[in-house]
Amino acid sequence: MQDNNEQLREVFEHFNSVTDELIHAYKLLEGQVAELNSKLQQANDELVLKSAVNERLAAKLTALLAAMPVGVVELDEQGCVTQINHAAGQLLPALQPGQCWQMSDWLQRDTQDGEYRRRNHDDSISFVSVAEVALAGQGSFMLLLDVTHLRQLHEQLAQQAKLASMGSMAASLAHQIRTPLATALLYAANLRQDDLPEGARVRFAGKVVERLQALESLVQDMLSFVRSGVVSGEQRVVDLQSVLQEVETIAQPLLDKKVLHWSMQQQNAGQVLVIRSDLVGALVNLVENACQFSVPGGKVELTAQAQGDECVLLRVANQGEAIPETVQQQIFDPFFTTRANGTGLGLAIVKRVVEDMKGSIRYLRDGEMTIFELRLPIVSA
Known about the structure:
The protein is of the alpha+beta class. It is built from 8 helices and 13 strands.
């Protein structure tokens, strides 16, 4: 009996010990659960706060998207429209969410400046600038900006600039015409004298004709400059050697008259795509300028040298004085001249001719030589 009591006592003690451990473990677990609940509540509060912030941000972005003057078209990964803003709806009224986006269905590329255009219901034309913003794995945005008004402003500005240029040109032309016209009128008035000797009459008539020819030359230069594109006719592939020889033939009388030392060289100049008569005229113009600014016995040179397979350099050089730095930026401007009887159109016409042939021209000074250098693209054989 005593042994049984002892066993029962041990069992109860063990049971009490296990119970105490379970109670302690439960309290620990209860504390951990409370801590986890606190953290969960904190995380939940943060999520609610972030959700509210995101909702406010989304509302702001939605309002901003709706108010933007730039049209925005949202596309999914398959290129289908998921959302458009008000500006995009105004530009493309027929565009609706769910449609597949094909640029050619809505806008046509404008070859003039790379923008896009579309015809409106009233047959007017709208011009649109388009940019795509790609999102990694999330589709893309198409940004559409109506630049019709901006284009109209540019056209108006260009028109105003053209009118201002025409006004300035007309004023310069009037100034250029006034002197030879006044001289011609003076000599013509002298021809009306009844007692004018025959020799003087012939001399005055010659002066009138000379001044009228100067006026005709000025008008011809003016027409050459102002017509739409100086280059007239069909461009052809020509051999530069034959062009240089023609220039030499035309310029030879003036070279002989001023007793100038002439030199012409060409090193594998090759072929160029030009209008032969215009290129010859431009080179003759430069050679005549070189002769007029050379002292008797000076050098005048015409050279052509290929620069690889890309271009050829044509140089007209003389031993005349250097052009002052103060006017070097103006020498290609219409009606700018340093000669008393010059029209100021020669170099302007040369520049237009060369640029229409996809080339360029510049002035430079090399030692004692004044040089005008033309750069023209070579035609591949």
